[in-house]
Design a protein that fits this description.
The protein has about 270 residues and is mainly alpha-helical. About 75% of the residues lie in helices and about 0% in strands. It starts with a helix and ends in a 7-residue tail after the last helix.
């Protein structure tokens, strides 16, 4: 019994530590704070509020983006990309400031985000520029097909395996996209193979971005706000360098604010 006592104490201590960890996890999960606004209610209510916010603001973003690209002569996709990335940076910084966590900015490993930011800049830029060549519904369909490159990346890079139903879902999604693209190319006045290629690049970039973000979060142990600030700020810098490198694009982007000021009224549908 003397030999069993230390073992029993060790088991009890382990169970106590696990209980404390679970309690801290539940507290952190219950304290969801978004830009100073703390969500109330049980976890499932907070979950649906977050999901509703993602879809709601996503619809607003897509509506405004489509509205802007209806203006005649609007070809400032890269400039729009910089604006979107900087908005993400401001949101991440505001979240850190409101929670008194601004010191976390000094602990960011900027060099570790180079690969992620290059992919993010290309993905965001391709998605915006594609709207100069195709209609917005085409972009929505292609961006919704991230399942396909994600499965392909999982098979060839991460060596994952999928079930028959998952392969069937991927095949049906491919067939649906092919059919929609073929029909839209016949009836749409704005359809170009260049736009389709840009959207393909954006979709594959999305799949890579998700995997790179997950890997960096595990390796660096950074917060999501740190990753959001660092990745979007560096991606905006890459896009700006790209614009400056191409002088013609730089001249076009400088005209973007003047174009926005000249078209204050929304275009007719």
């Amino acid at each position: 019994s003397a030999e069993q006592a230390p073992d029993d104490m060790g088991v009890q201590k382990l169970e106590q530590n696990q209980g404390e960890i679970q309690h801290e996890h539940n507290e952190m999960r219950a304290k969801i704070n978004i830009l100073g606004l703390r969500l109330q209610g049980p976890p499932w209510v907070q979950f649906f509020i977050c999901v509703g916010g993602v879809f709601g603001f996503g619809v607003i973003h897509d509506f405004i983006q489509e509205l802007v690209f209806r203006y005649d002569g609007f070809e400032f996709g890269w400039f729009m990309t910089i604006c979107e990335l900087l908005v993400f940076v401001v949101a991440a910084w505001a979240q850190l400031m409101l929670q008194n966590r601004q010191s976390e900015v000094t602990t960011i490993s900027w060099s570790q985000y180079v690969g992620l930011t290059v992919v993010l800049a290309i993905t965001q830029g391709f998605g915006s520029v594609a709207l100069s060549y195709v209609n917005f519904p085409v972009k929505v369909v292609f961006k919704s097909s991230k399942l396909i490159p994600t499965m392909a990346l999982g098979i060839f890079v991460l060596r994952r395996s999928y079930t028959f139903l998952e392969y069937t879902a991927g095949f049906m999604l491919c067939a649906g996209i092919a059919t929609f693209t073929l029909v839209d190319s016949k009836v749409s006045p704005r359809f170009s193979l260049v736009g389709v290629l840009l959207l393909l690049g954006a979709v594959f970039g999305d799949a890579m971005t998700v995997n790179l973000q997950e890997r960096l979060l595990r390796q660096l142990k950074n917060s999501k706000e740190q990753m959001m600030l660092a990745s979007n700020l560096m991606a905006a810098a890459w896009v700006l360098i790209f614009i400056i490198f191409l002088q013609r694009r730089a001249a076009q982007s400088l005209r973007a604010p003047h174009s926005a000021a000249a078209h204050r009224r929304p275009p007719l549908p």
